[in-house]
Design goal:
Blueprint: E1 3-5, E2 24-32, E3 39-43, E4 50-60, E5 63-65, H1 69-72, E6 76-79, E7 90-93, H2 107-112, E8 130-138, E9 142-151, E10 156-159, E11 169-174, E12 184-193, E13 201-210, E14 217-222, E15 230-236, E16 239-246, E17 253-257, E18 265-269, E19 276-283, E20 292-293, E21 296-302, E22 307-314, E23 321-324
Parallel strand pairs: 3-11
Antiparallel strand pairs: 1-10, 2-4, 4-5, 4-8, 6-9, 7-8, 9-10, 9-11, 12-13, 13-19, 14-21, 15-16, 15-20, 16-19, 17-18, 21-22, 22-23
């Protein structure tokens, strides 16, 4: 039997809507958002998500009732074989990430490992069935057979573990990929702002992209600097400052350089989907920018949540940027203004 009383009645969610009273279920089933198999693969990187779709019909005294949004969001996933909570390495959310997508290409190996578990056929559900999607991510490699669980206002728990509502799906978590830095390419360099247009600024914009397959850059983490702020900034003959900046990957937006300065130079970043931006900026507006000689350490993420760590390195004259492998790349301080030739360089 997959209904049991619990000591914890499903109380208020703290939201404005009032819970619908119900005392039985007519339908309670979960399945993956595809028909190939009962398995959805994900990389165990904590970012990529598997979608679990749940259909439910609740009744009160034999009459179908509509559950509130907050009640639907209280549906949880449990281990199919035991009904126990899933391990901490498996995270469930009612919200889908806008960045990462599933890759059914991983299914090939999973299908062979399914031990001939039957594929459920698609069924037409009644119009009064309600749907709720849960999005599952994993941080540990493994195979998780999951069921759904909901608790009625009177404290009766229903699951899709073995019993009248039996249904399940497998989340197959694969080892995440870490791409080599040279899978990235620093492609086009655009003279975004020239001194002929703005005497106080000269901006060269660089576009970074994957150089393999159909991979796209969708996110970034900046390790030794704040995104959109200079990781490298030093005096240059004829200019008060020469700065290098790596920008947070995301939606197209306008930035101001120096950051947050009224009257600073304005330009757009993230104008090419699937690519990242870095820039070399010569400028006369110092605005208390700290002098820094580090290279930019950034981890970029592809659309499947897998990572590629890289360094945005600065040429010895400070005027051009290029990609390099990660490492403790810290340039020594120059001897004085205009004497910025480093004693160590990355070529």
């Amino acid at each position: 039997m997959n209904a049991s009383t619990t000591s914890n009645a499903g109380g208020s969610s703290g939201k404005a809507d009032v819970d619908t009273d119900w005392d039985d279920l007519v339908l309670f089933q979960l399945h993956p958002d595809h028909a190939e198999t009962v398995t959805t693969p994900v990389y165990a990187n904590g970012r990529q998500q598997a979608q679990v779709k749940i259909e439910i019909i609740a009744e009160k005294d034999g009459e179908v009732v509509t559950l509130t949004e907050s009640q639907l969001k209280r549906i949880t996933l449990v281990a199919y074989d035991t009904g126990a909570p899933l391990p901490e390495s498996v995270t469930t959310s009612c919200e889908q990430s806008a960045l990462y997508e599933i890759s059914l290409d991983l299914l090939e190996g999973d299908v062979l490992a399914e031990i001939f578990e039957p594929r459920r056929e698609n069924h037409a559900f009644p119009d009064d069935a309600q749907e709720q999607s849960l999005w599952v991510s994993c941080t540990t490699v493994g195979r998780y057979k999951v069921a759904a669980k909901i608790t009625s206002p009177s404290g009766v728990s229903y699951t899709t573990c073995p019993g009248p509502f039996e249904s399940w799906m497998n989340i197959s978590a694969h080892a995440p990929l870490v791409h080599d830095w040279d899978t990235l390419k620093m492609g086009d360099r655009q003279d975004l702002i020239k001194t002929s247009d703005s005497p106080d600024y000269d901006v060269d914009m660089y576009f970074i992209k994957f150089d393999v397959g159909d991979l796209r850059i969708v996110d970034s983490i900046h390790h030794n600097h704040t995104a959109d702020h200079p990781f490298y900034s030093w005096p240059q003959p004829g200019w008060p400052r020469m700065s290098s900046v790596a920008f947070q990957v995301g939606q197209p937006r306008e930035v101001i350089f120096p950051p947050g300065v009224t009257g600073g130079c304005k330009f757009k970043v993230n104008t090419r989907p699937g690519q990242a931006n870095a820039a070399r900026v010569q400028h006369r507006a110092t605005h208390d920018l700290k002098q820094s000689f580090e290279f930019g350490k950034v981890t970029y993420f592809d659309q499947y949540g897998n990572s590629v760590p890289a360094v945005i390195a600065v040429a010895s004259d400070g005027n051009t940027l290029h990609l390099h492998s990660t490492g403790p790349h810290l340039l020594p301080e120059p001897l004085g203004k205009g004497a910025a030739e480093p004693t160590e360089k990355l070529d």
